[in-house]
Design a protein that fits this description.
The complex is a heterotrimer. Chain A has seven helices and twelve strands. By secondary structure, chain A is of the alpha/beta class. Chain B is α/β, with parallel strands linked by helices. Chain B is built from 20 helices and 13 strands. In chain B, the strands form three sheets. A six-stranded parallel sheet of chain B has the order 1-10-7-4-2-3, with helices on both faces. A four-stranded mixed sheet of chain B has the order 8-5-6-9. Chain B has a three-stranded antiparallel sheet with strand order 11-12-13, with no helix packed on it. Chain B is globular, with a radius of gyration of 26 Å. Chain B starts with a helix and ends with a helix. By secondary structure, chain C is α/β, with parallel strands linked by helices. In chain C, the strands form two sheets. A four-stranded parallel sheet of chain C has the order 2-1-3-4, with helices on both faces. A four-stranded parallel sheet of chain C has the order 6-5-7-8, with helices on both faces. Helix content of chain C is 52%, strand content 12%. The two termini of chain C are 24 Å apart. Classes of the chains: A alpha/beta, B alpha/beta, C alpha/beta. At the A-B interface, helix 1, helix 6, helix 7, strand 9 and strand 10 of A face helix 2, helix 3, helix 4, strand 1 and helix 8 of B. Strand 9 of chain A pairs antiparallel with strand 9 of chain B, so a sheet runs across the interface.
Chain lengths: 209, 467, 242
């Protein structure tokens, strides 16, 4: 293996090394209203959005969404600000499984859940994207396996675009960061759009101030 | 695999005659073309961004060793294992060894051109590991036993009833109908179980970011996330040229990748993988292996073809190429089709094996026009054609004809004599200034050939002088 | 603008042998624009088909020959985007290593013009407004639009001479000629041409006009009875401005 490494690097050093790197790209992207651009962009890729005035209203909206979905089993990340919203207490009509606070296989719970609830570390207005990552209390499967993914997004986590995110992103990076820009889709059969292939069929984002 | 001119023409002729396929190609590529134009126009400065990304790619390729070492260092620090493979055999051997050591019998794969390039599935099967494709289009093709038709939309040519039949055969159960939602739901259900059962997830990689040792994977379906999160071992195979030095560079790359490929501002899922699950992570793979694949790429440095390493595999060139849009992907006999395929395939696998591909183009230049990093594909096709001639790969007939014609054209009097004879001899066959020959005798197929004018312009010049 | 009102015509091998009326029209247009036209008799072919097929030695010989023939001309005009491109873009590279030809090739490249480009930018010629002619649709050949950047010039001349232009769906999509490609891979070539002709027919315009003889030859070959409705820019302009 290291022989392969040596040889490849040796071959590569033949490159003349002469081209200078052009430096960083300063994105000129700004939006007068980050929220409305976010809503527009996400809805264009078949996501659903709600904009609420505060956390209380956001939780009420969440309840209405869950009821409308006919959801029973909810799996939820254990992350700020969700952890301070006390969702299992405030919405006891549903069967809540919170990451790290449940018994049994998280994988099985996620596979059988009706809805996965998370927040997002950041969101990109330009492309209608929510950014989720892995870490203590943050499972990859919560936002991936259930057929519906609901995001409670504080509006102050919105930035203009990917360049803005990259500038503010702290390192080292977690093991997994996923930028989600809509519900799962494909057009592989007869070039016809089909929603909900492997990932969630519905992505609902509740933005609140 | 090979593509001689005869083989290419035969496959292309089948595609040209297939009305359904032609309609499918037109629908898919047309959508991508239109959407691409719209999203690029929406950017405040798409052209400048393309220039910037080109400069980034050129600088990266010129300093690839350094950036790959940086990537390796940071990936290793994050807990990933970085392997280096000089060729397809080495790369496959690494994967099968990892599988054998861990008792893996089922591997779930997300779409990866690099793994097709190295024929990984064949190596896995030979090693007793069952690979299952999870990208819907790729899974359909796996069931059908066919190669992909398009880099981004591999099963472009399959009708829904063909897909339904494949699914019924695979699941052993009838389907209520062959509507797309039903087919999609079937795939979701069937493949979900494979993700959960697989002992290894295998992916490619769109970008390897040197700054943090991360692999970036973009998909619309979510299988990229599944494959890299559910199985305990994740193996990523990525070409050595797919490096971005910094995250700002990766952002520029991502800003143009999906826009150029399908006309989406971003793919639905952009997944960034930096090593295996950390202590405290509720889930994620225990091991992450990154295989850096050379397989002929390093050989292109410092040659007339170095620029091809800047390719970000978006497929925009396929969607615009009028030759690809008629011939379809199978004719290229390679995981890489269209304009990029016509250049990279002979370069990686030998022009002697793919002599048709550099000629599968009218050099119209549309590909260079739409390439996000403006790769001069026509120039490289011309270089490859010249190489073919230099290495004696042109047919004897062609060589004689070309050299003969060039000789005549270098001697105006000879030309005058020759054309006089031909203008006379053709007379019985000329109708309305054109010559129609039976298809069997006609190099131009169904097309009429032009007739020599009774008098050349040379001969008319005297009269024109007097006007 | 050229100081002298004199140009040399490089008529191109396809026009010379197969459609000399395009050359005749070109000469008349240049004269109408106030230029004296010379025709170096030794000319034959710019060498492009050989270059495109990878036969660079043959291409080089023809390029050297062409450079020698036209070296002393103040300006050279061609009724062909593809041959103009060959001289302007490829000759300097092809002959760059030969000290006997390198300088002259670059100089020739700087003085070589496609017809519509010359009429509009060098001659400043405007067709005299005459009676309106029927609608036409215009095919942007690959060399004209992508390599020379000449989309507006042919259209301007057509419009000024009384032709209404009805654009087809993809006017700059390749017609399928590609030189030797048209006989090397005729199935694909003809399919591309069929698509082009369909798009042209869909406009309803009775005339399909192009500035490249190669494309002209290709499209006529599949136009059957309508071959006469596929015409070169030069002949259309010449007829409209008599």
């Amino acid at each position: 293996m290291s022989e392969a490494r040596q040889e490849i690097l040796r071959r590569l050093r033949r490159g003349n090394g002469g081209e200078p790197h052009p430096g960083s790209w300063q994105s000129p992207r700004t939006f007068p209203d980050l929220v409305s651009r976010f809503v527009e962009a996400l809805e264009a890729s078949h996501g659903e959005t709600f904009v609420e005035d505060d956390a209380g209203a956001a939780v009420s909206r969440l309840e209405r969404v869950l009821v409308e979905l006919g959801a029973r089993r909810i799996v939820c990340q254990d992350e700020p600000p969700l952890d301070s919203l006390d969702l299992p207490e405030r919405l006891p009509a549903f069967e809540w499984h919170v990451v790290g606070q449940t018994t049994g296989s998280l994988r099985a719970i996620c596979a059988e859940a009706d809805v996965g609830v998370s927040s997002a570390q950041a969101a990109l207005s330009e492309t209608g994207t929510v950014v989720v990552d892995s870490g203590p209390g943050r499972s990859r499967l919560v936002t991936l396996l259930p057929p519906v993914h609901v995001v409670l997004l504080p509006a102050d986590r919105l930035v203009a675009d990917l360049f803005a995110l990259v500038e503010q992103q702290e390192q080292p990076l977690p093991a997994n960061v996923t930028l989600i820009s809509g519900p799962s889709k494909t057009a592989d059969i007869e070039q016809t759009l089909a929603i909900g292939v492997h990932g969630p069929r519905r992505l609902v984002v509740i933005v609140y101030s | 695999m090979t593509a001689s001119t005869g083989e290419f023409r035969r496959e292309a002729a089948v595609a040209v005659a297939d009305a359904h396929l032609q309609a499918a190609l037109e629908t898919a590529t047309g959508r991508f073309r239109t959407a691409r134009e719209i999203v690029l126009a929406e950017l405040p400065d798409a052209d400048r961004l393309r220039d910037h990304l080109k400069a980034v790619r050129a600088a990266t390729i010129a300093n690839l060793a350094g950036y790959l070492e940086q990537f390796e260092q940071n990936a290793t620090a994050a807990g990933a294992h970085v392997h280096w493979a000089r060729d397809a055999a080495e790369a496959s051997a690494i994967v099968t060894r990892l599988a054998r050591e861990r008792g893996v019998t089922l591997a779930a794969k997300s779409k990866s051109m690099a793994t097709e390039e190295i024929h990984l599935n064949d190596a896995l099967l030979a090693a007793g590991v069952t690979p299952v494709e999870t990208d819907l289009g790729e899974w359909i093709l796996q069931l059908a036993g066919e190669p992909p038709y398009h880099i981004i939309a591999p099963a472009i040519h399959k009708t829904r009833d063909q897909v339904a039949a494949l699914f019924v055969q695979e699941t052993g159960a009838p389907l209520p109908d062959d509507n797309i939602p039903t087919l999609t739901a079937t795939a979701r259900r069937e493949l979900r179980q494979r993700f959960l059962d697989a002992g290894m997830g295998i992916s490619g990689g769109n970008i390897a970011v040197a700054e943090t040792g991360s692999i970036v994977l973009v998909t619309n379906e979510g299988n990229g996330r599944m494959v890299t999160s559910l199985p305990p071992v994740h193996v990523a195979v990525i070409g050595i040229e797919k490096v971005a030095p910094t995250w700002n560079d990766a952002a520029a790359w991502l800003a143009l990748l999906a826009r150029s490929a399908t006309g989406q501002p971003l793919s639905i899922y952009t997944t960034v993988i930096t090593g295996p699950a950390r202590a405290g992570d509720p889930d994620g793979p225990e091991e992450v292996h990154v295989i850096l694949l050379d397989n002929g790429r390093s050989r292109l440095l410092d040659t007339a073809y170095e620029e091809i390493l800047q390719c970000i595999r978006c497929g925009a060139c396929l969607n615009i190429c009028p030759v690809y849009r008629e011939a379809g992907g199978h004719a290229y006999a390679s995981p890489y089709s269209g304009p990029i395929g016509a250049v990279i395939t002979p370069l990686l696998f030998g022009v002697e094996n793919y002599p048709a591909l550099p000629h599968a183009s009218t050099l119209c230049g549309a590909c260079q026009d739409v390439c996000p990093v403006r790769i001069d594909l026509p120039r490289m096709l011309l270089e490859l054609r010249a190489e073919e001639v230099r290495h004696g790969l042109a047919s004897t007939t062609e060589s004689l004809l070309e050299k003969g014609a060039a000789f005549v054209l270098a001697h105006e009097r000879l030309l005058r004599l020759g054309r006089g004879a031909l203008a006379l001899g053709q007379k019985p066959f000329v109708r309305n200034g054109q010559i129609r020959l039976p298809a069997a005798l006609n190099l131009a197929g169904e097309r009429d050939l032009p007739a020599f004018a009774p008098r050349s312009f040379h001969q008319l010049w005297e009269e024109l002088q007097d006007e | 603008m050229t100081a002298e009102k004199r140009v040399a015509l490089f008529v191109t091998c396809i026009v010379d042998q197969l459609m000399p009326e395009v050359g005749v029209a070109t000469v008349r247009l240049l004269r109408r624009a106030g230029f004296e036209v010379s025709f170096p008799r030794e000319q034959t072919c710019c060498g492009q088909p050989f270059f495109n097929s990878g036969f660079r030695d043959q291409a080089r010989k023809l390029a050297e020959r062409t450079v020698a023939i036209f070296a002393d001309e103040p300006a050279v005009v061609l009724p062909s985007g593809s041959c103009t491109t060959m001289i302007r873009k490829e000759y300097p590279h092809l002959l760059g290593d030969n000290p006997r030809y390198a300088y002259r090739a670059r100089r020739l490249a700087a003085r070589t013009f496609e017809l519509s480009e010359f009429l509009v930018h060098q001659a400043g010629w405007e067709p005299p407004p005459g009676e309106p002619h029927g609608p036409v649709t215009y095919h942007d050949s690959c060399h004209m639009c992508r390599m020379l950047g000449l989309r507006a010039e042919p259209r301007r001349l057509l419009a000024q001479s009384g032709h209404e232009i009805v654009e087809m769906a993809e006017s700059d999509r390749c017609c399928g000629f590609g030189g030797v490609f048209s006989v090397r891979m005729p199935e694909i070539s003809n399919a591309m041409t069929a698509e082009k002709l369909q798009q042209a027919a869909d406009t309803g315009a009775p005339l399909l006009v192009t500035a490249d003889p190669g494309c002209l030859m290709q499209m006529r070959g599949l136009a059957g009875e309508s071959a006469g409705q596929v015409r070169h820019l030069a002949t259309v302009l010449e007829e409209a401005t008599r």
